[in-house]
Design brief:
175 residues, alpha+beta, Nucleoside Triphosphate Pyrophosphohydrolase, 3 helices, 11 strands, 15% helix, 44% strand, globular
């Protein structure tokens, strides 16, 4: 590691999925065991698939792109495999192909977790989605032209928005 700190990060606490580290005076949290996330941009016939679910750290529901952990169940799992599995589990859609767009960090001042943004191609509805038992995911299929209004309406209801939704709002925020 390079940067203003010297030495190596010290593990302050580690659970099954989270590790808290301290490096000099800097404290941060990250995923344990090299786990990272796959975030899925799933477009079908001019619509985008979004998911809504209760998030314990926020204490309320959050609107997000479909996503899931890579390597949480299988060491060495490929990003494409995890993304395809999570997309189908959460939304009920199966992709013919997953394309990796790139790797990103969502809150690099506090969290070392990164995610791979992927694009799902050739979607076919094969189930209802909803996630794993207990996740209670609601799937929204939203026309791209209406995404801004849909997000605004959900925000007005008090729903949290995942920062990755900015990929859909893009230049519209600059208007």
């Amino acid at each position: 590691m390079s940067g203003p700190q010297s030495g190596v990060p010290e593990i302050m606490w580690q659970g099954d999925f989270i590790t808290v580290r301290k490096w000099g005076t800097w404290e941060y949290v990250g995923r344990a065991r090299g786990i990272h996330a796959a975030v899925i941009l799933a477009l079908i016939e001019g619509d985008v698939l979004l998911v809504e679910q209760y998030r314990v750290p926020l204490g309320g529901p959050c609107l997000e792109l479909p996503a899931g952990l890579v390597g949480d169940e299988t060491d060495g799992e490929a990003v494409e495999s995890a993304a395809a599995r999570e997309l189908e589990e959460e939304t009920g859609y199966r992709a013919d192909r997953i394309e990796i767009i790139g790797r990103f960090a969502s809150s690099p001042g506090m969290v070392s977790e990164t995610f791979s943004l992927v694009r799902a191609h050739g979607l076919t509805k094969v189930g209802e989605g909803g996630g794993a038992p207990g996740e209670n995911i609601t799937v929204h299929r939203v026309p791209l032209a209406q995404v801004g209004a849909f997000i605004a309406a959900k925000r007005a209801q008090g729903m949290f928005m995942d920062v990755k939704l900015l990929t859909l709002l893009g230049a519209g925020l600059l208007d």
